[in-house]
Amino acid sequence: MTGAIRLIVITSPDQLDQEWINRLAREAEIEHLDRVGSVAAGVLLARQSRPDLVIVDRDVEQIESAIRQIFSYVPSTLCIAVTPSADVPTLRRLVMAGARDVINRPIHHSDIMNSIRSVVAAERDRSVRAASNSDQRLGRLVVVVAPKGGVGATTIAANLAIALRQVTNTSVALADMGLQFGDVGVQLNIWSRHTLYDLVMHASELDDALFEKVLQTHSSSIKVLLAPHELEAAGDISGDAMRAVLQGLLARHTYVVCDTWSFLDEVTETLLQKADDVLVVTTPEVPALRNTKSFLEHLTRNELTRGRITLVLNRFPSVNGIALQDVQKHLRYPVGANIPSEGQSITHSINRGVPIVMAQPHSWASQSLLRLAAYVAGDNANPISLQHSGNKKTGKFTLPGMKGRRSLLSLMRGT
Ligand SMILES: Nc1ncnc2c1ncn2[C@@H]1O[C@H](COP(=O)(O)OP(=O)(O)OP(=O)(O)O)[C@@H](O)[C@H]1O
Ligand SMILES: [Mg+2]
Asked: How confident is the model at residue 191 (pLDDT cuts 50, 70, 90)?
């Protein structure tokens, strides 16, 4: 049993010799059957109702034309051709047009039912296999989350994505999942009318062409997925759609870095559940630490993530910030990485739309971000840096031998 098949039969308008269609309609496996006496109307109906199957019972030219159109407009719909005779050239024509099976007239009920069953079963088997193959995601998901707004999550996500690209020389995507007021585009000086919303709206038909159109290429070579422009779009984005988008991103990139907003909504929770690395960003200030403590407790209590949680202390060291030991004591959680406070250079780079790892790669903040990237990429590098050890040269540099991570580490050590 294949069960619940929705079917259109495109046949001649004369209603002659069509008892086989009535018998089909009575079959328990056929959930719905539309009989259409015109090729154009049948194709239109197929485009609108996207049935599982269309059977085309016309002359060969019309069958070929109908199947070709359905195949291109609704590729998920399967087509069976019914012809008076099927010599090899005719069969080839119909198969080339996209027919899954060809049945000869006169039609016997058992023949057409067997054909329907085997065509539908083969397709369902294929799509189950395709779904399980696409579950074998290739990329690593890095989610940057801050339980308090304004602590630097976007700055870290944007720079980390670029640093990951520099460190690993692999394909990196940065996705702005700050569903309202997402400002990755501003920090990277990128604008496009295509955003996450385009992917979410086509979540069931995501393909290379759509990703290519929607993701923007930044001058650092990372791909950027912008947040929706319309504030009300956030309400239309479900966890399911987000899972499909994530799957598509992870199948196409080695690292997918997601910037998030400070709400634990369905989308953020989905990201946390799927993450390999969760970077929890905070600053050494009482309000941020207070939120971070509850967030970390919530994460661990509810087993919200199976990924590695790394607490990133941004703007540390900074003038008048709370001491590292006190931060860790208060949070009852070790600080895994820190980024120093470099107000002037970071603010300047954000205002110019050039992330600090590109604008001032030798700055302390950039070196810390590169260390963090190496750590995310799996190096044993310790991403804690309490003083700037590197040289203070400014200007752009290129990393020699970018394929290996060792060269980066020695670069960071200044050797
Ligand atoms: N290490 C740092 N040193 C100095 N300033 C920083 C640092 N990191 C971030 N900032 C500044 O903090 C401000 C907020 O940064 P950012 O937008 O990245 O935070 P956010 O957590 O993403 O905020 P939002 O809640 O609005 O999404 C920026 O103006 C940036 O210049
Ligand atoms: Mg932000």
From this structure: very high
**Atom 19 (ligand 1): residue with closest C-alpha?**
152
Helices (H), 215-342: 239-252, 266-274, 286-301, 324-331
* Residue 143 shares a structural domain with residue 286: yes
Cα separations in angstroms, 126 against 100, 182, 184, 211: 13, 38, 38, 23
**Domain around 96:** 5-134
Using CA atoms, how far apart are residues 124 and 78, in angstroms rounded to an integer?
A: 11
Number of residues that this document lists for the chain: 415
Residue nearest to atom 12 of ligand 1 (CA): 152
Give CA–CA dist 199/225, Å, rounded: 10
pLDDT in tens, 312-328: 999 999 888 899 999 99
Same domain, 25 and 168: no
Atom of ligand 1 at shortest distance to CA of 350? 31
Q: What mean pLDDT value characterizes the chain?
A: 89
How far apart are alpha carbons 65 and 76 in whole angstroms?
17
CA-based radius of gyration for the chain: 28
Please tell me the distance between residue 326's alpha carbon and the centre of ligand 1 in angstroms.
Answer: 22
Same domain, 274 and 368: yes
Q: Which residues contact 162 (CB under 8 A, 6 or more apart)?
A: 172, 218, 220, 222, 355, 357, 358
For the Cβ of 351 lying below 6 angstroms from any atom of ligand 1, the answer is no
**Which domain CATH number covers 86?**
3.40.50.2300
